[in-house]
Amino acid sequence: MALHLQRTPIVLSATTLKTLVNRYKEYTQKIDYNTIDEETYEQCRSSIALLKSGIRQIKEGRDNLETKHSAIVDEYKNCKNKSEKKDLLLEIEQIEEESQLQTVIAESHDLTFMLAARLDESKCTLDKMEVKLGYSTLKAQRDGQQTSESTDQNNGVEVIETVDNHDPGPSAASNPLPTETSGSTYSTQSTCRSIKPPQASLPKSYGDAEDFPEYWAIFETLVHKSRELETMEKILLLKESLKGKAQNAIKGIRLVPENYSWIVDTLKQRYSDQSSNRSQIVQKLVSMKPADQSAESCQAVFDQIQVLINQMISAGYNIRNNCDTIWAEMILGKLPQDIVKPVIVASQAHENQTINSLMGQLQKEIAAKSYVEKRLNKAIINQVPIKATRPNDRHNSSRVQPGNPNCIFCRKGNHPAMQCRSVTDQGTRRNILKEQNRCWKCGSKSHSSFGCTQPDCSQCGQKHHVSICTKNNANTTRNIQPWNNVQIPSNTAQSVPNYRDRNQRLIQNDPSNQNRMTTSNMQLKNENKKSQITALTSTSTQLVLMTAEGDVWNYNKREYEKILFLFDSGAQKTVIQEQLAERLGLPKQSSEICTMSGIGGHIENFKTHIVNLKVSSAFGEDVQMQIQTKPVITNGFPSVHLSNDDVAFLKENRIRPANSKLRGERQNPHVLVGLDHYHDLITGQNAIKTPTGLHVAETIFGPTIYGKGTTIKESLTSPTTFSLTTVHEKSEKELLQKIFELEGLGITPDECREDDKALEYLEQYSKKISFKHGYVTAPFPLKENISELEDNYTVAIRRLESLQKTLQLNPEQAKWYCDILQKYEEEGMIETFTQPAENAVGTYFMPHSGVWRRNKKVPLRIVFYGSSKKRGKLSLSDVIHKGESFVNKIHDILIRARTKKITMMCDIQAAFSQIRLVDNHKDLCRFVWVRNIKYPPTKDNLILYRFRRLPFGVTASPSILNMALTAYLNAKGTKLAKEIQQSLYVDNILIGAESVTEALEKYVQSKQLFSEIGMNLREYISNNHEVNSRIPEIDRLDAGPTRFLGVDYNSEADTFHVSTHFPPMSELTKRDIVSQINSLYDPIGLAGPLTVHLKALMREVFNSGVDWKSKLTFDICNRWNQICKTINDAHISIPKFAYTLPTSNKKRLWVFADVSKTAIATCAYLQCPETGLVSTLVSGKTRLTPKKQQQTIPRLELVGILMASRLGATIRSSIRDQISEVSIVSDSEIAPYWLKSTKKLSKRFKTTC
Description:
By secondary structure, the protein is α+β, with helices and mostly antiparallel strands. The chain has a 6-stranded mixed beta barrel with strand order 2-3-10-4-7-6. A hairpin with a 2-residue loop joins strand 12 and strand 13. It is globular and about 120 Å long. The chain starts with a helix and ends with a helix.
């Protein structure tokens, strides 16, 4: 009940407003005026006064209610604790429901508009009555008399300006048409006169970009949009109001009506560049002189800042309602610490403090300071205990000149500042110098300590006066006396704590005394055991990672936006968050598999895209980088926590860090900069250290702070170490394994062996899948820790708020988002709910966002995040088994396709969304949305959805789909079901036939087979023209070139195609070579012989030990380009149907193997035993020889036979029913002998491998 105190005032205010609305509703009716003109005139006057009063009261009541409501909403937004925030949201919704706040406010708005309409109507009637009764003539005469009287210096008549725009005129009882005598009498005796309102004059524009929005707003209202003025009059008025640079901007343009738009556009283009205006405003704030200690100076600086905020809003950026940390820090830096400190303390209770809230708090502190100064009739200075100083501690002070006639510490004029005996504490002196931005050597405001000609401190050599040196007395443990000759009595209880506090402060300020206590302090502690001692705040070490905020180019929005960079010299490659790369629309160059290894040997493999990133330096220079994407960079870590000494040091040296978070806030970088671009962005690491030991480095974005430094440890918490993982390419063994080793042949020993564990898992899970009622219903494969899953509601709400802000700036995307969710609901994919499902296993809210792809037919794809979670909590993906994919191999499916005379290919429409969830698992897939995108996600505007079908974004979704389809096809057990099960790849299906009739029957049967579980097969394409023509167009894909399982295929010519294209490279690295070789996708092995020489050169480069990123020699690069030129633009086509052999007879599979010192190759053909006819190439494999050691040809022949046997086993398992026997052919005479001897084979083959 945190809002209990605010509930009653809001309810009462709402009741009051509702009463006012009900009271003034009757005045919205049309007024029936009297037939007598004089009475009508009086009636109009009364109506106008009444309507004005009603409008004013309603507006005041509404503003009061909205202010109170905004206060509780701000309290909700600024709440840090997530559970408390959720409770506050519920309380706010209850208050709104009890007070009917939104309804009352809406009714008051409607009533205000209606009353305003009646007010305008009454004013028009009043004007007519004045003309009719002659009061308008009387007013004109009085105006003329007042004009003449204003020239009379001796006229003692008081003139009072009336508030109402309409002169009430004489009453009905007075003479409406006075004579000249009465008129002159009236003019001399009346003491209450109306004067003619002054004419509005146009402001002048002198070409100041910051003032132009204000000037144009006035000119546009008075002149530009005026329908009464001619175009030429507007031009003349515009020219009249332009001066200086603004007038020069339109010189040369003829001042004729047809050029008016040209003139206006020229001025807008010149002075309405909002980004340029905003940068100038920020520069003014940066260069603004800080305020001194007086309230008058603080108020003046505050007013200047307020002007800049208003100009920023006029420039198109509503800084007032934003939580801009940079602006907040700059604003706080312009005011003294006695103003800033209470504001900073108060801001700790608010997570996101807006600039408007910050300015309001500062205004209160300045007003309080002004009030105190007026009461005391003097400026307030820091009050400190009066202590004396040692007379012999005055050396060097004679050379120090005071900053002003009076002492800056005690404000007295009888001594220099550095010889002050009233304010002797070093910490207090330092604070005063820091607050007033004075030199720490001489106290002057005209320069900093680094520019001062006075000598450095004689005690420590630092740039400050000896009287404020913290080392001056921190290490002095002998004969510690007060700083005057007055002795402290030993029995004075109050003296000891004061001295101890001071000594403790000295210990804290001295790094050498962090972990020990002085001897005198120990003695005082022993002598005064009964006194209460405040525990010392110990110092600890902070390790700060190097981060900086920089501008990157957003290709979608065509503008720069600021993101956080993390610099890590331990990482090899630069990576960017994958989601951010998509949002920025970064151009993708290629894709590859990357391995990330971290502390503890943890290895992560993920797919990455090579993208181009353009960043802008602080000086406007563009830097192009080619980097990789990664799903997650890091979970975040604290920023640097600058001490007061560090802040003062940075100000003195005019160092402005390129990071908005400097107080230990949590930050999450979007780009990790590795060694490949580290020195492109880091321009220098200067030998500059802050007082706490932190280092300062120069980046293209500005200075950044990093390293090891001391900080105040306010609470005893367990230390947390934030470490980064190292991103690198695959190791040489992993990347080259598939090129050189037996394990990379693509046909492993286990390829034909069934996985008993996987089959057992499938059998157990398939028992939970239901195929009733015409659709598939499947559960999630849950883990035992499902009971530990939390709802993730607060994360989902926070992500929704962020998504809503983005969509409000992109109306087109917002419309697509709403339409897609509405379509989901209409199609039954999602549903609304009020209560959780019966026996629900758990509850989880998935955040969601959109991926915008403008070039697609449906440009928006909504993505749900099942891996989202709070720190230290579980996500939905954490409590679900990923399961087995059971996906068939592409090579095997293509082999089956090559043995079918007629083939049909198709896919399952929206396969994932056709799997329905069991009822008690639906609440695991909840998400939140809003009814109206324009309003915040309050209870009245919030919609709770949950998925009825398998959602996108859960890691187990592919495995659930495959296991469900496999279980269904196995359960059907038909011949066609078994064929589809063997040729199913995710949602792609291959069907074979020997005749047109059989193909069309299988088309009908397959459609029927999947329709039984609510799935639709579509985009059928066949290599037979007649089959294509007889398939309905709604289910047919256009014949011609297409891609099947990644391979180029022409359905009309019924051929597979492989093309080689290796662009010439002026510079090469080892990574470039491997990337080009792997860019050729050839699962059947058609182009294997063409790449042997390229792979051999790769072997040579590999054996040379060249680093992955090092540029290869000119000779290697030239040889590579020559080989590429030889094999470039090769186009290989083979018939999909491998043979024209009798289909009724079984075939003999021939597999040939041959080797050389460079490569091993094997190829397979089919032959009809009766006719001897041979097919075209069925499949082939080409690999380089193993690289472990020098191999003999006989041993390599044995390896070739092994390759051939594995390839033969793979092909036979794919088309088992068509092969009668397998023959392996080799030209080696030694290898067959070894094969006959099992013992020799075992020994020699182990040596070979």
